[in-house]
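dumping this here so i dont lose it
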């Protein structure tokens, strides 16, 4: 198995730089069944699989996954990976489940909204969650909005359907 990190043009990035993880090896399939367009964009001609995972690689080959390319949003020119924020939020006792998405903003391009499902018997304190994020994340990664919800839309496999989550500032 081979692994590499590349930029949007498919060029290798230097160790420690962020890009998309690609894999190549005998265990990589040839493509998706009856999905030619998706096959072309994911299974590259030279045998590399574009995973859609964003990450970094050290000079000795250790890989750190930052999040999914399609879930990333750009706030003020900075890439924000929701998984990193969700990992911080999920450590709080009041959070049973959470999901972070980007939403359009005229000033920053996009901002973040965290949807929080409270743990049983817990009351969510938004200021506490914001403080937790502020302590553990760069300022541009701290969600601009927090929404407490009863549940999140789920797939039959138990994954959150982020495509069904939306948020936007109230109409003026």
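and the seq i came up w/
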């Amino acid at each position: 198995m081979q692994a590499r990190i590349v930029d949007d043009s498919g060029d290798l990035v230097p160790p420690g730089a962020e890009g998309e993880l690609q894999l190549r090896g005998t265990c990589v399939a040839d493509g998706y069944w009856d999905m030619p367009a998706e096959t072309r964009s994911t299974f590259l001609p030279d045998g590399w699989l574009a995973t859609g995972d964003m990450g970094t690689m050290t000079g000795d080959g250790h890989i750190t996954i930052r999040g999914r390319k399609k879930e990333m949003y750009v706030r003020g020119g900075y890439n924000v990976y929701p998984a990193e924020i969700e990992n911080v939020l999920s450590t709080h006792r009041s959070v049973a489940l959470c999901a972070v998405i980007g939403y359009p903003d005229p000033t920053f391009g996009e901002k973040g909204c965290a949807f929080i499902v409270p743990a049983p018997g817990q009351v969510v304190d938004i200021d506490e969650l914001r403080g937790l994020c502020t302590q553990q994340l760069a300022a541009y990664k701290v969600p601009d909005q927090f929404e407490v919800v009863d549940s999140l839309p789920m797939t039959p496999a138990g994954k959150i359907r982020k495509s069904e989550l939306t948020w936007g500032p109230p109409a003026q």
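The CA atoms of residues 7 and 19 lie 5 Å apart.
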